[in-house]
Amino acid sequence: MDDRRPTGAAFLLTQLGTHAARRFAERVSAVDLTPPQSGLIRAVAGDPGRSQQALAAQLGTPATRLVALVDALEQRGVLERRRNPDDRRLYAVHLTPAGEEVLADLGRLAAAHEADLLAPLDPDERRTLAELLGRVATAEGLTPGVHPGYRDLPADDRGPQGAPPCGT
User: What pTM was computed for the model?
Assistant: First the structure.
């Protein structure tokens, strides 16, 4: 037995989290997206029509960084900004039909990612693991469904080359 292998849960979470994030980044790069762009698409799909400011707050990133993400996805025809009918100073962010297709692709990629990563576990073990990790995430004050890497995004994240290793 190799006594040098760290077995603490915190280390294993970091090791697996980093590995999973890198693998997810590889998967979404196949559809020319970064993990932060993928998360933004999911956030917009979850509650369409929110302002850029509301999305930035949810994701925990400065609005200027979010604007760069929205700009890149708008240029690709995945997202669109519309004037907010209640406050003309704000833009509401929506998925386009092309964005809906990208969202479906992301769903398939995320399902394959999870299936591959958790292949050694049976379905009951997967549920238990998700429940336990969810409790830890809640206790740490993490926003459900939002990767904490958004806080560290560079202001110019406009494509796959500038992506930090953020996962699902």
Answer: 0.81
